[in-house]
Specification:
The complex is a heterodimer of chains A (about 325) and B (about 375). In chain A, about 25% of the residues lie in helices and about 25% in strands. Chain A has about 325 residues and is of the alpha/beta class. In chain A, the strands form three sheets. In chain A, strands 5-9-4-1-2-3-10 form a seven-stranded parallel β-sheet, with helices on both faces. In chain A, helix 4 packs parallel to helix 7. Chain A is elongated and about 85 Å long. The N and C termini of chain A lie far apart (about 70 Å). The relative contact order of chain A is 0.11. Chain B is an alpha/beta fold. Chain B folds into three domains: about 90 residues, Fumarate Reductase Iron-sulfur Protein, Chain B, domain 2 (Orthogonal Bundle), CATH 1.10.1060.10; about 140 residues, Rossmann fold; about 120 residues, Rossmann fold. In chain B, about 45% of the residues lie in helices and about 5% in strands. In chain B, the strands form two sheets. Chain B has a four-stranded parallel β-sheet, with helices on both faces. In chain B, strands 1-2-3 form a three-stranded parallel β-sheet. In chain B, helix 2 packs across helix 6 and helix 15 packs across helix 16. The radius of gyration of chain B is 22 Å and the shape is globular. Chain B starts with a helix and ends with a helix. The chains are: A alpha/beta (about 325), B alpha/beta (about 375). At the A-B interface, strand 7, strand 8 and helix 5 of A face helix 1, helix 4, helix 9 and helix 16 of B.
Chain lengths: ~325, ~375
């Protein structure tokens, strides 16, 4: 990359959290930017940030003139403050005229910080881009639920900055690798990093009841006492399931709800405890191997679906089962 | 800059496909954005559903994700000063979502079940006649009792089918049922916007109707009633009535006895019987047959609050605060009536599931009459 890229067009290529590939919107913008750079007769630079340079060369398949990779161990994970510090330093050196980013969560976080540091304007969330005059970009932003579109420009300051909504430009086809790759190690220290990861727990430790071989289902008749049901499920090497009533009551998470608006299961064995047996539930265990039902009411429709039925109070039955399984 | 400013006054971008589809299937162009629909919508109270906004967005080619929350209860249709078929707009918008499979979880499974098993429960077609148990069906004549999926398969709703058949038997009506030859009326497919499957199922039933020489169809579910009416009238097919209408005729003809007067009942108008088809009187007259005095709720007839089960919502989960069913049971209990009666298997299923601590028993009109009058 040339030491100075006066008037150049830069695209921020955001890495996915695994660091090995790029967000689709980054590539979409690269495709559009290729077209714009040609019209402007300027060079196109893809800027990427991360801990290492392994992925940067992949960007060469999307037609940039240069790939600028900012690599530093402190940049392994997105951090708005550190990323903005690293990119701003390069912008100050090279003076690009335009900087485009994807309007992802991280892209939005970064774009705002960068615009402040660069003392320039930012057009957020555009759905199309046009050129006007010598190098004026017009970013079109819908307003009022799509009823109007505003064309926004940044007439004085440079670089002009824009975030682009994902999906508005087509994904460019991959071509033969072009352009050079420059790796720069930004000057960063711990104090440049705004956040520290204490632990990482992916949201929704959701379980998949459709694959469970054994399910112990609790319904209204459990009165919310799922502790023993969990023990029973554990003793049988199975999972806990629930009816809509039990889920509505907050006794069990929604992802364990079985039935018409929940999960359709096919376990080898299902224990159905304190469940009346409305069809909206039973369609969820229609494919089960053996159905064992426990209910106080001998007339409960669940017994029409059971291979084995126990008429009795749930508490003593569950205790006996746990004893028989050697849990208590 | 001047160029950009000039541009700002004009550029409104339509997704012509959406608008063209709406223009072809509905009268959406009549909407003048007054917002009466939003005010009438039962979801406006506790969700961000805004019907006016949904139509506005549709005019610009956008599809509001709230389109899937709609219960197609038609309170908006009933209140629209321009007579816009807003339910039709919802169905069309949903239909367009199928092209990109941008549909709620569970709906593809529902439709596949309707397609391959001919019912909404994914249960074997051969079990379809299991509702009959000990009820004898004359099995002759040109009148057909169309049972529908719920009353065929749902043990709770099967009681409605048996009650309706019992009343027809008591009055000496000649009728037939299709048994395992019956397939789903397709209403759920139409509600979730899959018109092709709806038409396919209609065609399958039409063929059976013709083969059996059916001239009149008595539907148990208001959803079947509405869907068959729409499908059959288009084909010049048989007359379609709801069971409450058919039994009200028997009452007029003096073929059914009246119970001694005692107690009170409140009646919930199912959307597909009331607002969609204007049947308000027949079920109320039948209730008088039961000897119970009808006590009306505040929101009744054309203003009845939906149970929440229409528009395919029976197959989509609804967050508890957004459920109208619980509100409706509370309203019914508030009348002081001893019973809540209705004439739709979906309403009954929803009310029984969502009544919470309300003690008021839920019953179907036909069940109530059978239980309280003599053969």
């Amino acid at each position: 990359m040339a030491a100075t890229d006066e008037g150049g067009l830069w695209v921020y290529a955001e890495r996915r959290s695994d660091g090995s590939s790029f967000t689709p919107v980054s590539l979409e913008i690269l495709g559009k930017a290729r077209e714009l750079a040609r019209q402007l007769s300027v060079e196109l630079t893809a800027v990427t940030v991360g801990a290492d340079g392994h992925a940067a060369a992949d960007l060469r398949k999307y037609g940039p003139d240069h790939v600028l990779e900012l690599a530093h161990p402190l940049l392994a994970r997105h951090d708005g403050k550190a990323y903005a510090t690293a990119i701003a330093a390069e912008v100050h050196k090279a003076h690009p005229s335009t900087l485009l980013l994807g309007a992802t969560r991280n892209g939005q976080d970064l774009a705002g910080r960068l615009a402040v540091r660069l003392r320039t304007g930012l057009t957020a969330h555009v759905t199309s881009l046009e050129l006007e005059g010598k190098d004026q970009l017009v970013g079109w932003v819908p307003g009022f639920g799509g009823g109007i579109e505003a064309g926004i420009t940044c007439p004085v300051k440079r670089p002009q900055m824009v975030t682009v909504r994902p999906g508005v430009f087509p994904l460019p086809a991959e071509g033969p690798p072009v352009g050079d790759v420059t790796t720069v190690t930004p000057h960063l220290s711990e104090k440049d990093v705004g956040s520290h990861r204490v632990s990482f727990e992916p949201k929704g430790t959701s379980i998949d009841l459709t694959r469970a071989d054994v399910i112990v289902v609790g319904g209204r008749g459990t009165g919310g006492n799922f502790a023993r049901i969990e023990e029973l499920a554990r003793a049988l090497g199975g999972e806990v399931g629930a009816t809509r009533v039990a889920t509505d009551a907050g006794w069990v998470d929604r992802d364990r709800m079985i039935g018409q608006t929940g999960v359709i299961t096919r376990p080898k064995l299902v224990l159905v405890l304190g469940v009346s047996g409305a069809v909206q539930f039973t369609v969820g265990i229609e494919g089960a191997g053996t159905v064992v039902a426990v209910n106080r009411d001998p007339q409960a429709p669940i017994f029409d679906h059971a291979d084995l039925g126990i008429v009795g109070d749930l508490g003593p039955v569950v205790e006996s089962l746990l004893r028989a399984l050697g849990e208590d | 800059m001047a160029q950009a400013s000039e541009k700002m006054v004009a550029p409104v971008r339509f997704d012509d496909g959406t608008w063209e589809a709406l223009a072809a299937t509905t009268n959406a162009n009549l909407c003048f954005q007054c917002g009466t629909c939003t005010a009438a919508c039962p979801l406006a109270d506790n969700t961000s559903m805004r019907v006016r906004r949904l139509i506005r967005e549709a005019q610009f080619g956008e599809t509001d994700p709230f389109v899937w929350k709609c219960m197609t209860c038609a309170e908006c249709n009933a209140s629209c000063p321009r007579g816009v078929d807003i339910v039709g707009i919802v169905r069309t918008l949903r239909g367009r979502q199928w092209r990109t499979r941008d549909v709620p979880k569970g709906l593809p499974t529902l439709l596949w079940g309707m397609y391959s098993d001919g019912n909404t429960f994914r249960l074997p077609p051969k079990q379809r006649a299991s509702w009959m148990q000990d009820v004898k069906v004359p099995g002759k004549g040109s009148t057909l009792l169309f049972v529908g999926c719920a009353a065929s398969y749902d043990p709770r709703a099967q009681r409605i089918a048996r009650s309706v058949a019992t009343l027809l038997n008591r009055a000496g009506v000649e009728y037939q049922v299709l048994g395992t030859e019956e397939v789903c009326c397709g209403e759920a497919a139409r509600s979730v916007g899959h018109d092709a499957l709806f038409r396919d199922l209609q065609a399958r039933n039409t063929e059976t109707f013709q083969k059996r020489g059916v001239e009149r169809v008595i539907a148990i579910s208001p959803h079947s009633f509405d869907a068959l009416k729409a499908g059959q009238s288009a084909n010049g097919g048989p007359e379609v009535v709801h069971y409450t209408q058919a039994i009200a005729e028997l009452l007029d003809a003096g073929k059914l006895g009246k119970a001694a007067e005692k107690g009170t009942v409140t009646y919930h108008d199912p959307c597909y019987l009331g607002r969609h088809n204007g049947v308000y009187e027949a079920p109320r007259r039948l209730l008088e047959l039961s000897g119970l005095k009808v006590v009306e709720m505040g929101n009744t007839r054309a203003q009845a609050l939906c149970c929440g089960g229409g528009g395919g919502r029976m197959w989509m989960e609804t967050d508890p605060p957004e459920r109208t069913g619980a509100r409706r049971v509370k309203e019914a209990a508030g009348t002081g009536a001893e019973l809540l009666a209705t004439a739709c298997p979906y309403c009954i299923s929803v009310f029984e599931s969502e009544r919470g601590s309300e003690a008021i028993p839920v019953t179907d009109v036909a069940e109530l009459i059978v239980g309280r009058t003599k053969a």
